[in-house]
User: Which sequence fits this backbone?
């Protein structure tokens, strides 16, 4: 964004969406994968697999609850 902003005159809402949305999601996913790989590489297979599966399951539950709550509030 530091390189692109002066060359492309990106509007602030788009710049913020890219910087926070895309880059934030990418770094979160990278950390998740790094931690998972570290556990598996260090011989903590059960812990690593539990971390992966529980993150997915809890994430899906959180999304479903968010959708349900959002529908009830509208």
Assistant:
């Amino acid at each position: 964004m530091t390189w692109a902003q002066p060359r492309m005159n990106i509007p602030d809402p788009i710049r913020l969406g890219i910087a926070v949305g895309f880059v934030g999601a990418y770094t979160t996913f990278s950390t998740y994968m790094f931690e998972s790989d570290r556990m598996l590489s260090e011989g903590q297979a059960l812990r690593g697999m539990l971390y992966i599966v529980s993150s997915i399951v809890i994430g899906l539950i959180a999304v479903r609850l968010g959708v349900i709550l959002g529908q009830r509030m509208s």
Notes: The chain has a mean pLDDT of 89.
